[in-house]
Specification:
Blueprint lengths: L6 E2 L3 E9 L3 E8 L4 E8 L1 H4 L2 H15 L9 E7 L2 E7 L3 E3 H8 L4 H20 L12 E4 L4 E3 L4 H5 L10 H4 L4 H5 L5 H17 L9 H10 L14 H10 L11 H13 L26 H32 L3 H6 L12 H33 L11 H14 L2 E3 L8 H10 L3 E7 L9 E4 L6 E3 L3 E7 L6 E3 L8 H10 L3 E7 L9 E5 L3 E3 L3 E7 L6 E3 L8 H10 L3 E7 L8 E4 L6 E3 L3 E7 L13 H19 L1
Parallel strand pairs: 11-14, 16-19, 21-24
Antiparallel strand pairs: 1-2, 2-3, 3-4, 4-6, 5-6, 7-8, 8-9, 10-13, 12-14, 15-18, 17-19, 20-23, 22-24
């Protein structure tokens, strides 16, 4: 855990911890280089010890750092220092959608749709940049104080999603997980849309559709159970919103919205005509056994899926019928017994449900007998012809194997060759044939950085769809660490020569300092052990910063007031006096006029009036004054006579 006042990369000052999650802690910090507040997500120690996880964490964060959008919490920087792995993100002052829902209970459908449109805008932009979130949930959606909706943890969630579903830290995420993610298969942009559908459901109803005692229990419900329409859980939800949520949360990705742009169109339309049934749902499978054509799926695949669905429906009807029969046997009411005037038992021939049960049991027995018979015949034929040419005829077993193989081949794909491709191209090639991937970073002196060194499954091999293919990606030449020499206190030229001699690239920054002499190095960053050839920034002192002061109007102030203002603003006072004008003790002029900008330390000359004050009324002469005056007159007269 970081402490208040700590610095990361000599740039980010930790202010306070503002949140914590399953894999990281979040801090508010100040970036002193750009003079702005940011959020820093720091990986927890249990994850930072896993080198594979760390390399994946760094690669995903870097891939998202160049992507910006108004509805996405932008990533500014990613780095590590002394085993601390962190991501610097945009700081959004606000509340998570999860807390907002908890505070409100449930949201009016127009407000929920407005929030969903902003989230979908962010997803649409990300998907166009080939970035899939994989952990859309209200906890990762922030509503700012200005009402702006932003999605956070892009790219980072992708790394976190590789952890097991049984992890306690993913309990919050599993409520919004798509069926394909729950199975551990390949997921794409449509998985984000499924999770957004669950989020909209929660906004409208105040609750999630599936809940349980464990993550596995909830995940199984996402795979097997149908999501109820929001209108069955909460009131005042129009039909268009119901249909949008149901389309978003279809089990098969092909039956959902195929892009966020399609979703945005329907969401905007729902605000204008909420009660219109305009949402186009994917065609349902026919009850007769013929599957409706689904976009992107072959007729064979559709028929196969339809057969599976019909089989599940038959099983459900069978067990429902069994339950109904049990209810009838144990809960016949008195009214039905009184209406039966014949006082006779129910005739088995008239009981359609019992007939259905007997038919199914009979068919089951017949099928078992047929299978046993075929097994015995195959064994007998196989033993009889064991010494004959095996190529003359095909046994029933071999035909069965071929049929099974052909059926199995439909679900298999050929692994493409991705060795030598760049990472993004390799991922795209695998995704195009329905395969997932797991990238492992490895240094290499012969393969360029970002290129695929090898693939875990050989090219040309047939594997099941959604299989995860391991690709080893080059991290470039192995980087050796070197200790940055101390250059603090050296001159700029000395520091530069020392660092370049050790193989470092030097970047120079300048800063005012009241303690370090001009031209000397204040600090170097980074410090300690860093990769050989790294860039080291030295900060050189410009000496004490000389600031300019804007002159105030000193005329009319007393001498002491003028002196005080000049001293407070770093200026020196030179006072001269005049007896010809002004009011005694007040400033009558200054050699710098109001509004003039002058450097600190400048001497400002002010002129203060010492003019003798005039009296308003002549004082009456006293007797002493009169005597003095008469004496002076007498003396003057005597002098004149002489």
């Amino acid at each position: 855990m970081l402490r208040k006042g700590m610095f990361l990369a000599d740039r980010y000052e930790i202010i306070e911890q503002i949140g914590t999650g399953g894999m990281s802690d979040v801090y508010k910090a100040k970036c002193h280089k750009l003079n702005r507040f940011v959020a820093i997500k720091v990986m927890k120690s249990e994850f930072s010890e896993d080198k594979t996880f760390v390399s994946k964490f760094r690669a995903e964060a870097q891939s998202v750092a160049g992507f910006t959008h108004p509805n996405v919490v932008n990533v500014y920087d990613v780095g590590d220092e002394n085993g601390i792995y962190y991501i610097v993100m945009e700081l959004v002052e606000g509340i998570t959608l999860k807390k907002y829902i908890e505070k409100r209970g449930k949201l009016p459908f127009k407000e929920a749709v407005s929030i969903a449109i902003q989230v979908a805008n962010g997803l649409d932009a990300a998907h166009k940049h080939h970035i899939v979130h994989r952990d859309i949930k209200p906890q990762n959606i922030i509503i700012s104080k200005e009402g702006k909706v932003k999605v956070t943890d892009f790219g980072i969630a992708k790394v976190a999603s590789s952890s097991t579903i049984n992890s306690s830290s993913t309990m919050g995420s599993v409520h919004y997980i798509s069926p394909e993610q729950a199975r551990g298969g390949y997921s794409d942009a449509r998985s984000d849309l499924y999770s957004l559908g669950i989020t909209i459901f929660e906004m409208l109803t105040g609750t999630v559709p599936f809940d349980g005692d464990s993550t596995v229990a909830v995940a199984v419900q996402h795979i097997q159970d149908e999501i109820p329409a929001p209108s069955t859980v909460a009131n005042d939800i129009p039909v268009s919103i119901d249909k949008i949520v149901l389309k978003l949360t279809q089990k098969k990705p092909d039956r959902r919205y195929q892009s966020a742009a399609e979703l945005i169109t329907d969401l905007k339309k729902s605000l204008v005509m909420p009660d219109d049934d305009f949402v186009v749902m994917a065609p349902s499978y026919g009850a007769s056994g013929t599957a409706a054509v689904v976009s992107g799926a072959s007729d064979t695949e559709a028929s196969s899926e339809n057969a599976d669905d019909d089989l599940l429906k038959d099983e459900e009807e069978f067990f429902n019928d069994m339950d109904d029969d049990n209810d009838l046997e144990g809960n016949n009411n008195q009214e039905e017994l009184e209406d039966d005037n014949d006082d006779s038992d129910i005739d088995d021939e008239d009981n359609d449900k019992l007939d259905l049960i007997m038919k199914i049991i009979g068919i089951g027995i017949a099928v078992i007998i047929l299978i046993v018979t075929i097994f015995i015949i195959v064994k007998l034929v196989g033993s009889t012809k064991s010494n004959k040419d095996n190529g003359t005829t095909q046994t029933t077993e071999s035909v069965t194997e071929q049929t099974t193989t052909k059926a199995s081949d439909k679900n298999k794909v050929t692994v493409p060759k991705v060795e030598g491709m760049d990472k993004e191209g390799a991922i795209q090639a695998l995704n195009e044939v329905g395969l997932g991937y797991k990238a492992v970073m490895q240094s290499s002196d012969s393969v360029a950085e970002g290129k695929v060194i090898s693939q875990g499954t050989a090219a040309g091999k047939k594997v099941d769809k959604n299989t995860q293919i391991i690709i080893t990606v080059s991290g470039g030449k192995e980087v050796k660490n070197k200790t940055v020499p101390s250059v603090t206190g050296k001159t700029e030229d000395e520091a530069k020569s020392t660092l370049e001699a050790d193989g470092f690239v030097v970047s120079i920054d300048y800063q005012y300092s009241s303690t370090v002499e001009s031209g000397k190095v204040i600090k170097a960053s980074p410090s300690g052990s860093v990769a050989e050839g790294s860039t080291v920034t030295i900060t050189v002192s410009r000496g004490k910063e000389i600031k300019n002061v804007t002159m105030a109007n000193l005329i009319g102030k007393t001498e002491s007031e003028a002196r005080q203002w000049l001293e407070n603003n770093g200026l020196k006072a030179n006072v001269s006096y005049t007896t010809t004008s002004g009011t005694y003790g007040y400033v009558v002029s200054s050699d710098y006029s109001e509004g003039t900008s002058i450097p600190e330390g400048t001497t400002v000359t002010i002129t203060v009036s010492h003019k003798q004050q005039e009296t308003t009324k002549a004082a009456e002469p006293t007797k002493a004054t009169q005597a003095t005056t008469q004496a002076e007159q007498s003396t003057t007269t005597t002098a004149a006579q002489n």
